[in-house]
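Progress narrative, Year 2. Work on Ribosome biogenesis GTPase A from Acididesulfobacillus acetoxydans advanced from sequence curation to structure prediction during this period.
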Amino acid sequence: MSIQWFPGHMAKTKRLLTEQLQWVDAVVELADARIPASSRNPVLAELLGNKPRLLLLNKTDLAEEVWTKRWLESLRGQGPAFGISAVSGRGLGRITPELAKLTAERASRLAGKGLRPRPIRVMVVGIPNIGKSSLINQMAGGSKAKTGDKPGITRGNQWIRIHDKIELLDTPGLLWPKFEDPEVGRKLAATGAVRDEVFDAEELAVWLLTWLKENNVRVPPPYESRGQATLEEIGRQRGCLMAGGRVDTGKAAQEFLREFRRGRLGRNTLDRF
Ligand SMILES: Nc1nc2c(ncn2[C@@H]2O[C@H](COP(=O)(O)OP(=O)(O)OP(=O)(O)O)[C@@H](O)[C@H]2O)c(=O)[nH]1
Ligand SMILES: [Mg+2]
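Result:
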């Protein structure tokens, strides 16, 4: 199973980010704490050049804490990085001071010219459904940016003033044209960054069940019934039946993936080293 998702609106997003870059002082890149490597867009490296950048691992509430810690230790070699949860608000208090530090040089240059400091302008980027708009809303203390539990919600640019020190630019999620490693595509699909219509839910669910088993991940019933549950068993437990009482494995797969994404199987980090 090879998963790819790079629709026309993403090619447009890439152009849009490039255009906007000249107006911003720094970039916040959001990655997924469950897949800190697979959720980082390789295209961003060339696109962002040497703009000051802060890397945030979001959805730490869904990832395994020991792994988040390990990942952050390794990622910090490349620049500032820490973990947050845009829904619970964890870690968000560190963002403004960190951005101020990253842009201190610009601030002192303006002060040196006798110019009044203006708010720091920051572009928020990342893959679809990673929580860019949720983060901005949490920081702004309202729901100014539209959010949703499927990828592709934000379609245009939107500037949102957080307070007199910071303005954040919400942008649409961006993937890249080809996932070189098919595992990356599967992990992005499993965590919800790819539209459900572009992959086979059953194949993906079977892959994920196998992955969990191979990595000795303990999952709660009905996913683990005497070993590892099959889609048949999950479907029966969840009442995904067709006429005649046969299990609807397609529906069981969708249900399983939905529950995995919501953390009902516990905290899981799929990228490990
Ligand atoms: N558990 C958990 N869910 C989160 C977190 N942050 C965001 N979400 C959820 O993830 C989903 C996507 O959030 P959005 O803010 O719309 O994501 P986005 O990056 O703006 O998505 P696009 O606009 O489609 O690119 C929503 O259902 C959020 O509630 C988090 O830290 N933890
Ligand atoms: Mg959004």
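The chain has a mean pLDDT of 94. Residues 200-261 form one domain.
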